[in-house]
Every structure is written in C-alpha cells, then in structure tokens.
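Allow me, if you will, to draw on your knowledge of protein folds for a short while. I have a record of one protein: its chain in single-letter code and its fold written as discrete structure tokens. The full record is reproduced below for your convenience:
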Amino acid sequence: MSGDQGVPIETIADLVGHAGTGVTEAVCRHQLKPMITKGAHTVNKTFSDKPTG
C-alpha cells in the first residue's frame, strides 16, 4: 500500500515514528485527509471568487 504520492505507507510510518502502519493509516485517512481536503476546497473557492486583472 502507498500514500497519495506513491510513498509506501511503511516509509511514512517509519518517518513519523509509528511501530506499524495501522496508526499511520488511521490518522491519515480519518484526521488529516478530511482537514487537507476542506482546506483545499476553501482555498479554491476563495481564489475562484476573486476577479483577475
């Protein structure tokens, strides 16, 4: 299994100090991804509403 950018989940778990991939997967899927997605939608909406030029 790999993350959204092709990095193996085992590598991500090791980098953040998790003993296995279970916690890493849970945190990424249930906490970080929704927050990042919401932030991205907010930024897109903010900049798409601004006139250019």
